[in-house]
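Input/output pair, single chain:
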Amino acid sequence: MKKIRRFIWYLASRLFLVLVLLSAFTVTFYYAMNASNINIVLKDGMAKRAQVIMMQEDASELNKFFQSSYLQRDENLLLALEKKSPYQYYTVRGIDHRLSMTWMWCWPWENTARAEFVETIPRIDGRVRSQDVEAARALYGTSYESPPNWQGGKYSATLVKENNQWHIRSLSLIEKVED
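Output:
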């Protein structure tokens, strides 16, 4: 009887250890999957936002990355859509958009995630439009020929999972960052 009891405890302890390891692997896998998806949504979404603001691109694609409630209150985006952006006098051909994630957390069983990241645009390829030279000169002085620098920043983002896709629900600027 003693041998049977020891054998059962041996099997139970090994089974428990296997279950703990499988649980840890599962949680790690889903965390890594969510982290990579969130990183892609943040990088692509923030790059598209900057392109809409600077290059007057189609803003409807932002719905792939942001909740519409956030887009309705994004001040920089609203200024660009109202043609009041600091880049309205420029033809921007390209940007060097950089985003580096500093922190992210999402439990595998939750539909909400928080992330912190730093966004910068160190180079903007663009020139003032010929018809807007005087307006740009009046607004920016002697440095009117090139578009104004993008104000980089460290952001805190809240993302939500809707229909198996992550969307940015809110962004808040933690601190401004110089390029």
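The mean pLDDT is 94. Helices lie at 2-55, 68-71, 75-81, 133-140.
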